[in-house]
Amino acid sequence: MEDKQNPLEVALSKQIRVELAEREWSQDFLAEKVGITKATLSRYLKGHRSMPLPTLYEIAKAFGMSLREIMSKAEDRISLEDRWF
User: Fold this and answer.
1) How many angstroms separate the CA atoms of 77 and 6, rounded?
2) What are 49-60's pLDDT values in tens digits?
């Protein structure tokens, strides 16, 4: 059975990776700031688990961003053909 990831989840993972790279932060560092394990963060970023909204909020806060900001940047990454609205 093929497991197709939600385009927004894929875009959020990519955006988080961009934010990490821009700050030269490791996944370990972000996970510690957010209060989760690196393994859990890795599962979210690889698409093995969906990220809970409270965790995304804490990640955005760690980056000095609002939830709206990180969601907007992620949404901009979604190509038009992948949009479901």
Assistant:
1) 13
2) 999 999 999 999
